[in-house]
Specification:
This protein is α+β, with helices and mostly antiparallel strands. It is built from 6 helices and 8 strands. The protein has an 8-stranded antiparallel beta barrel, surrounded by 4 helices. The radius of gyration is 17 Å and the shape is globular. It comes from Rhodoplanes serenus. InterPro entries: Dimeric_a/b-barrel, EthD_dom. One of its GO terms (molecular function) is oxidoreductase activity.
């Protein structure tokens, strides 16, 4: 199954709060959720943290689950996307700043079952492998020694690594290679984890395998639109 991440930024003149509200309450419900090939769908809205830039790269991310490449192509050709979701994009998003990553999920710390109303926060960490490091070696390191260090973070409830799929490298390099997802009870728990020795070891490992200038962090709150159970496809 493809887990797609769509990172987005508000259109000029729209505040972050307006952007996030429109995405969750209007675009996701009226347009994107009607694309029949989407099996699960949630919108993650950025939580501002001390030290964040005044104009962050992205203010939220959509997570979309599709069965496979054939379903993805069908979704891109669907009238629900072309006449609905895509036509609505200029109303809220700076589409020229959007980044889309198709990944394969590798759960490492499963955690409790996901529910629509679960409390907590999600920390996203996006990485690009260090220059000169082969993609296969980067992936093996991330799923092996790196993941072992990540799982030692205090307060971590769930952990998953999304590796960008091979198709992204068919013509040129993918802008990023992986999306790590760290679930915690709240923002204070993230602060505690980031001040810990296990995080210092994890940060050192990021410096070993990833390009520091292309390492991005975003703390978000999750909003389920479809799911967490899979929606039937074709629709019943």
């Amino acid at each position: 199954m493809i887990q797609q991440f769509i990172f987005a930024h508000p259109k000029p003149g729209m505040s972050e709060a307006e952007f996030q509200r429109y995405w969750v309450e209007v675009h996701a419900v009226r347009y994107a959720s009607r694309i029949p090939q989407i099996r699960k769908y949630k919108v993650d809205t950025r939580i501002a943290r001390p030290g964040d830039p005044a104009d962050p790269l992205w203010d939220g991310v959509a997570e979309i689950w599709l069965d496979d490449e054939a379903a993805e192509v069908a979704s891109l050709e669907s009238p629900e996307l072309i006449q609905g979701a895509r036509a609505d994009e200029p109303n809220w998003a700076a589409f020229w700043r959007t980044v889309v990553l198709d990944t394969t999920a590798h759960p490492r710390l499963p955690g409790p079952p996901e529910t629509r109303d679960a409390a907590g926060v999600l920390l996203l960490v996006l990485t690009k492998r260090r220059e000169g490091l082969r993609l296969a070696d980067f992936r093996a390191h991330l799923l092996g020694p790196h993941a072992d260090k990540a799982e030692a973070l205090p307060g971590l409830r769930r952990y998953q690594i999304g590796l960008v799929r091979d198709a992204a490298y068919a013509i040129s390099e993918s802008p990023l290679d992986a999306v790590e997802q760290f679930w915690f009870d709240d923002a204070d728990a993230v602060d505690v984890a980031e001040a810990s020795l296990p995080h210092a070891l994890l940060a050192a490992d990021w410096r070993l395998c990833a390009e520091p200038r292309w390492l991005h962090r975003m703390l978000v709150r999750e909003h389920w639109i479809i799911g967490p159970e899979l929606r039937p496809y074709p629709p019943a």
